[in-house]
Design brief:
single chain; mainly alpha
Length: about 45
């Protein structure tokens, strides 16, 4: 856990924007797939 956190911290120092964007994209994808998959299924029934 600590090693992983350290690795993430290192990545942030190297390229904070890229890591932030990557994390945001992952979260957004997970969020959208959860929220809109059901909605999409209903709309395109």
């Amino acid at each position: 856990m600590e090693k992983r956190f350290l690795h993430i911290q290192m990545q942030k120092e190297i390229n904070p924007l890229n890591l932030y964007h990557e994390t945001k994209q992952t979260m957004l994808t997970k969020y959208l797939s959860k929220r809109y998959f059901v909605h999409y299924q209903i709309v395109n029934f």
